[in-house]
Design brief:
By secondary structure, the protein is mainly β. It has strands spanning 9-13, 22-27, 30-37, 40-45, 60-61, 64-66, 73-75, 92-93, 95-98, 101-104. It has a single domain (9-110), classed as 3-layer Sandwich (Rieske Iron-sulfur Protein), CATH 2.102.10.10. The structure holds FE2/S2 (inorganic) cluster. FE2/S2 (inorganic) cluster binds next to loops.
């Protein structure tokens, strides 16, 4: 297998994913919901930003996933909520397909800005 690039870890086989359904996996210690929909595969942190329940148990509608508890929807491309009560985005992760494997780089795209970790002398 060729190197998928830094940070990418195999999450599952592409054949494990069913169109229009979410699959809960753990990638490098992160809970991740993988969703195959609209001809693409998306990875979103499997924790609602409103109350910590798994998003993977919710319904998929186009490029959104609905939280089963209170009904907020999150855009799978950006992680942003499209409706109340959730107001905070959920991290989304880059996905690559390598042959029959789904690879995810589970570092949040919404991490704090790197400059906040700079130590001033
Ligand atoms: S727990 Fe997800 S919307 Fe409330």
């Amino acid at each position: 297998m060729t190197s998928p690039g830094p940070g990418f870890t195999r999450a599952c086989a592409l054949s494990d994913l069913t169109d229009g359904e979410a699959l809960a996996v753990e990638v490098a210690g992160e809970p991740v919901a993988l969703v195959r929909t609209e001809g693409e595969v998306f990875a979103i942190r499997d924790v609602c930003s409103h109350a910590e329940v798994p998003l993977s148990e919710g319904e998929i509608d186009g490029c959104t996933i609905e939280c089963w508890l209170h009904g907020s929807r999150f855009d799978l491309r950006t992680g942003k909520p499209t409706g109340m009560p959730a107001t905070e985005p959920v991290p989304v992760y880059p996905v690559r397909i390598d042959g029959g494997d789904v690879l995810v780089a589970p570092h949040p795209e919404t991490t704090p800005h790197p400059e906040t970790t700079t130590v001033e002398s």
